[in-house]
Specification:
The protein has 105 residues and is α+β, with helices and mostly antiparallel strands. The chain has one domain: OB fold (Dihydrolipoamide Acetyltransferase, E2P), CATH 2.40.50. Helix content is 19%, strand content 43%. A five-stranded mixed beta barrel has the order 1-2-3-5-4.
Amino acid sequence: MKKLFVIIVALVFTSGLSALETKVRTWEGTGTCAKCNLGTVEKCTNVLKITSRKGKELTLYFAKNLEHGDYFCKGETEGLVAEGSVKRVDGKLILTATSVEKKKG
């Protein structure tokens, strides 16, 4: 019985951690292209540059590129609002966006 309790506690704890990783949040920042404007990758990749709560500039790489010319290529688009979840993969912050739009007003 004690082993079963330990297994259940472990499962509850690990399922809670995975829920934290997929928490959907709203991110606001500047959209640009990681290749054309930042020179950090070899092929065009949408990114959202944000400022963390601690004041550090972070780059969120989109898991899936949006229509290339909308907000990201040939310059920067300030005031983008993206909704989605972020997780770290191979040292990069990957944003799985459910929506991206220009801030109104």
